[in-house]
Design a protein that fits this description.
This protein is 32% helix and 37% strand. It is built from 4 helices and 9 strands.
Length: 145
């Protein structure tokens, strides 16, 4: 299980309550590029439309830029593979004000999987508290070392 891409900013901006694993529908050259780590999750999110889940805003750079298919869009919307029960559960949670954020992309048995986090956006003062807490923990680790 090799991590291909990670959205570290998401754990800072959102209070993640639950995580889900989904498959991603990719074309052949997108899969090769993603497995090389050329995937960017910054600013991406997952949405549910018409009973199906989609990844919006993630970009997969072309495997061979000079040989990319005509009209290739790096940040196109990609379908996510989730069960019907997960989609119906997440639909209710998203209507209650939570957000579905991609946390990391990894391979599992040669398949590209994405870990999604269901979370609530943090306010500015909550982010400041997280920074203070992190600094205090760092100082305690230094003191004990």
């Amino acid at each position: 299980m090799a991590t291909l891409s990670e959205n570290r900013q998401a754990r800072f901006d959102y209070d993640i309550q639950e995580t889900y694993v989904a498959g991603v529908v990719l074309t052949g050259h997108e899969t090769k590029s993603a497995k090389l780590g050329r995937m960017d999750l910054a600013g991406a999110r997952a949405v549910i439309r018409g009973g199906e889940a989609y990844l919006v805003g993630a970009s997969i750079h072309s495997f061979q830029p000079g040989n990319a298919p005509d009209g290739y869009d790096e940040s196109r919307t990609r379908k996510l593979l989730l069960s019907r029960q997960e989609i119906s559960y997440l639909t209710g949670k998203l209507e209650s004000g939570l957000t579905l954020i991609p946390l990391k992309v990894y391979t599992h048995r040669a398949l590209v999987k994405i870990e999604l986090g269901l979370g609530k956006a943090r306010k500015k003062h909550d982010k400041r508290e997280v920074i203070k807490k992190r600094d205090v923990e760092r100082e305690l680790r230094r003191a004990h070392s």
